[in-house]
Amino acid sequence: MHENGECDLRGIYIVTIIAKMLGMKGDIYEGLADEVVVCQTYEGGLTNVPGGEAHGGYTFCGVAALALLCQLERLDISRLMFWLAQRQVDRLGGFSGRTNKLIDSCYSFWVGATFNIINEYFKGTVCSENLLYDITYTDFTTNAIFSVTSYKRAKSLKEE
Asked: Domain 9-128 is in which class?
């Protein structure tokens, strides 16, 4: 972050995912989970900073960061799930990002992916010491992008 720049859940998510992909250990993660937990609102969603309004995008960033930090259960999951479910607007068939707002197509990703992260976390497939990342780098001068695929080690690799 640059001096006087924004500091919120987006930055925490970016730092967490990059550090995890690079296999970094140590105090880089210190205090990150605490910063996310204090952003949960009375409604159950997460906001960009403590005291703000719950928002689908910030909720995704906070939930994803906590899942990567293996601390998702620190949130009030019941309130979170209720808030996420309330984002679906039945007569319009989509998701809203905030309470009393209209649907927007981007929230189908932010809210939908948050449900998926929570589901996978509590199934035990997200937080694992055996989780690896396969990073495929492609030359950006050709406008290609890299892909990141996570997978669990095979049992034979675990035994090594």
From this structure: mainly alpha
Whole-prediction pTM? 0.76
pLDDT digits (tens, 9 = 90+) for 30-60: 999 999 999 999 999 999 988 999 999 999 9
3-state secondary structure of 56: helix
pLDDT tens, residue by residue, 105-141? 888 889 988 988 998 888 776 665 544 444 443 444 4
User: Closest Cα to residue 72, out of 106, 122, 113?
Assistant: 122
The full DSSP string for 82-126 is HHHHHTEETTTTEEBSSTT--B-THHHHHHHHHHHHHHHHHHTSS
Q: Where are the domains of the chain?
A: 9-128
The H or E element spanning position 89 is strand 88-89
- Rounded Cα–Cα distance for residues 25 and 22 (Å): 9
